[in-house]
Amino acid sequence: xxxSATILISCNEQEATMEAEETTKLEYPxxxxxxxxxxxxxGTEVHDYYRWLENDTSAETEAWVKAQNEVAFGYLENxxxxxxxxxxxxELWNYEKYSAPFERGGYTYFSxxxxxQNQSMMYRQKGEDGTPEVFLDPNKFSADGTTSLAGASxxxxxxxxxxxxxxxGSDWRKVIILNAxxxxxIEDTLIDVKFSGLSWxxxxxxxxxxxxxxxDGSALSGLTQYHKLxxxxxxxPQSEDKLVFGGEKTxxxxxxxxxxxxxxxxxxxAATSTSGRELYIKDLRKPNSKIVPIVDNFDNNHSILHTEGxxxxxxxxxxxxxxxxxxxxxxxxTPDNWTDLIxxxxxxxxxxxxxxxxxxxxxxxxxxxxYQYSLDGKMEKEIELPALGSADGFGxxxxxMVVYYNFTNYVYPSTIFKYDINTGTSEVYKKSxxxxxxxxxxxxxxxxxxxxxxxxxxLITHKKGLKLDGTNPxxxxxxxxxxxxxxxxxxxxxxxxxxxxGVMAVANLRGGGEYGEEWHKAGxxxxxxxxxxxxxxxAEYLIAEKYTTSxxxxxxxxxxxxxxxxxxxTQRPDLMxxxxxxxxxxxxxxxxxxxxGAGWAYxxxxxxxxxxxxxxxxxxxxxxxxxxxxxxxxxxxTTGDHDDxxxxxxxxxxxxxxxRTHAGTDPVIIRIETNAGHGAGKPTDKIxxxxxxxxxxxxxxxxxxxxxxxxxxPETAKK
Length: 719
What we know:
Layout: H1 2-23, E1 38-41, E2 44-47, H2 59-77, H3 82-93, E3 97-98, E4 102-104, E5 107-113, E6 121-126, E7 133-136, E8 147-154, E9 160-167, E10 172-179, E11 184-185, E12 190-194, E13 199-201, E14 205-210, E15 228-233, E16 242-246, E17 254-259, E18 265-271, E19 278-283, E20 291-295, E21 302-308, E22 311-316, E23 324-329, E24 339-342, E25 348-354, E26 357-364, E27 367-374, E28 379-383, E29 390-392, E30 402-409, E31 412-420, E32 425-430, E33 441-449, E34 455-463, E35 474-477, H4 494-498, E36 503-507, H5 517-521, H6 529-544, E37 553-558, H7 560-571, E38 578-582, H8 601-604, H9 611-620, E39 634-640, H10 649-661, E40 668-673, H11 684-701
Parallel strand pairs: 35-36, 35-37, 37-38, 38-39, 39-40
Antiparallel strand pairs: 1-2, 3-5, 4-5, 5-6, 6-7, 8-9, 9-10, 10-11, 10-12, 13-14, 14-15, 15-16, 17-18, 18-19, 19-20, 21-22, 22-23, 23-24, 25-26, 26-27, 27-28, 29-30, 30-31, 31-32, 33-34, 34-36
């Protein structure tokens, strides 16, 4: 009895504490404002009071991060069901997870996570039925699990492996080379590699890309301008690696190089921004051959899919915004000699090759259809998928007679299928072990109207039999940029939302790639407001159709999606109860000053381009449009202290100004993950805790004293 009474008193005290916090504004750290930093843009003076937070190595910034985390975690730790959500997510996450297998050198390789391992392990076995053995264990790369395997490339005969590691989530990588048979490292580790594949030329060496490390300031935030393609010859030090393309001679921001499967050609892709690239080729059959341009401008996107002797197979969106496949020869590689093999259609095309076939994946209203073509362009069959959703993995070597592909949608856990190319039949290879019953849930697509009349697709997922009475906790997610398409995908974390009676809505906004390059361009530069309008209209649709109300709506997005949330919450702070801008681009006047940010100008434009472009960016930049005296929604900004993609200064400065201008009592906190980057390679324990904090923060700030699934009478637990 005494113990029970103690627990009861403790719970009552905790609830009383949280109720007090609901009506009392949190005490935020005192963030210094420096009025001396002023930039002049075409005659307009702009103060940047928190410029000092851009210095991620200073003691003052470090102290600020510590103080903000004390406030954030102090708040989160007092949400009574935070630990319960963490336990539920841990239970849900605890199942075996596999990657698709592939064969090299007589071994079948695959990745597997036993359930809660921080990093998946790489296994191999002899053939398909041999006994698996651990080949690489990234959990041993670092004591805290924050160093991850970030890419691996075998030689064609499987005897050698070069693999990349990422430390604390950084985009800067190291490359380690192994004798695959003995698993022994065979030479020194390569360092300072960034945004790179690894492509072997026979067994002699490989091509990789990188930048010079920034000389001034932090390596995590310093500007990286000119990419370089190198060739590393085995047995020689990295200092002797040969510059193949780029650098000061050919200034390009992004460069990739790879050797074709037949080892006949080196293909080079070069770009100055995230959209539009040049295409070059070098004939490796001829000693001292020159690098020859195929496309010498940045107007479109192109890649070489396959080569057969002198014949080149090219995927392009030149004169085909939705994509097409063309052929030409090494003797006449330029666009005026291209011949259509798979012409453009009304749907966006992605392609892969394997087993002497071309696999064409079309996007139809953000879901996939897959067709098998012969190399002469004849459509042979449609590959039957289990439902509407996303299918990927249709690619491999031309000698492969089996393709392993992954299929998923919002209520169909990720499943690996084995596809026999000769018979055209699929069978389940690895079924997900997640504890989830799809029969209890439904996912449907709707089309709503944006501000300018454009029809926008949105997928909505929830329990079957959901009442449209406006009381459902709803999580609206979007991205809307960089030609990225949001196709349906199962999320273990989302189970916590929908099993608690929640609604998951994903809007396919302009700026993405769902309907081709025109859809992408409609959300770029001076049309970026379209993206925010599309997102606002999605929220208004969910409210109008009585899925939810503003008091029960959360909006979320990461990276460019963090910009989306930041812009939406500054333009319409009344629209949502909760906002989650994650690793966001939030200072639109200075995003191009850090790491590879200058390459995003195709989508955004820069404040230096023109007065018109400056005015437009200044007009929506989230950091610059937080208005003093505004009651902002409950907001949890999230970032990682090692994010060198979208540097944490964006989130730091935005959070500081958000806290200063906020007039309401709802919390506006910043949760800063230590030893973490933009997201890739994050260990499982950090993922689970971050997701638990997100759902706890959301439910609590929608007024739930208990989780909805555990309430006997929902009305008694709402504000």
